[in-house]
Amino acid sequence: MTDDPSPSAPTPHLIVVDSAELRPCSQCGARQWLAGLTYLVCAACGYRDGPTPQEILGQREGTP
Ligand SMILES: [Zn+2]
What we know:
Layout: E1 15-18, E2 32-35, E3 40-42, E4 48-49, H1 53-57
Antiparallel strand pairs: 1-2, 2-3, 3-4
The chain binds zinc ion.
């Protein structure tokens, strides 16, 4: 039995950033973000701001 959900998609390391220069979350207004590679995730509500690396690389779904 494997306990690994998806070895091909490792969880990215999110760095906590809390800066007044960052804009507040558009959902809850918090200014504490978790910084991913190409995006920010609200630490309070989980709102994602910015494209994921997959979106930047290009989604093949619906794209010829
Ligand atoms: Zn939020």
